[in-house]
């Protein structure tokens, strides 16, 4: 059975050794400094070296068959074409940088770099028994991720789909107007509500604060619109919703808005499942994806 290593960066730098579809031992969580500091303060070469150190520690001297890494952005064969949330990685060939750093550590296993939402989708497919069907996942966190399994050709930057024509909707980190992430992303919500944190916005909506109530409706309608776009392009099916802000999702309200947007009966067989925000599925997904690529 293949032994692979997965790294996810969706909630800090987390690394694990995987055998089959199961984690072996405990996850390694990089804890030096603040949660965001390592990725945002280091150049691409420094991040590659940090990953190499974590891989070496997770391997514990054992031979591994492949290594998979999940990073935010548009990634093409290990080359990062765009990364709005980690701007210093734009133009970096992280796959080659990590391979070189690992060779210096005596590790020659093949390395693969993927979008972090795609590896989460692969992990959810592996751990929920859905590897025989197409699934999609929304990750609601600092940004908004959108992943699918099995991966299909395309850019799939779902967090940047346009869900509003209001020219005032300029809160997306990439600078685009009307984007989903500009409404739902943690950074965007903080910019919109300078007097309260996102959790307070949702708490105040429960207390009937009208400004917060209207925003929570917008928040749900935005996700419904982005999901409706995906359904109209790729068909219905299973959608997982994860990330630390998934706790705020009202499934009934989401269904209400989506039913207003998807009217073709053949497209109405969609299902939602909110899953806990953990690093295990992302690590397993990165490792399983790398193992599949290596075997192919």
Can you tell me about this structure?
This protein is of the alpha/beta class and 296 residues long. Helices cover 39% and strands 20% of the residues. It has ten helices and eleven strands. It has helices spanning 37-41, 44-59, 94-104, 116-127, 181-184, 186-192, 198-206, 210-234, 251-261, 280-295; strands at 3-8, 14-19, 22-29, 66-71, 74-76, 79-82, 111-115, 135-140, 144-149, 238-242, 271-274. The strands form three sheets. It has a five-stranded mixed beta sheet, sandwiched between helices. A four-stranded mixed beta sheet has the order 9-8-10-11, with helices on one face. Strand 1 and strand 2 (14-19) form a beta hairpin. The protein is globular. The mean pLDDT is 93.
How confident is the prediction overall: mean pLDDT?
A: 93
Q: Count every beta strand, where a strand is a DSSP E run of 2 or more residues.
A: 11
Strand order of the largest sheet: 3-2-1-4-7
β content, as a range?
15-25%
Oligomer category: single chain
Structural class from helices and strands? alpha/beta
Total helix count?
10
Q: Indicate the low-confidence ranges by residue numbers.
A: none
What percentage of residues falls in helices of 4 or more residues?
Answer: 25-40%
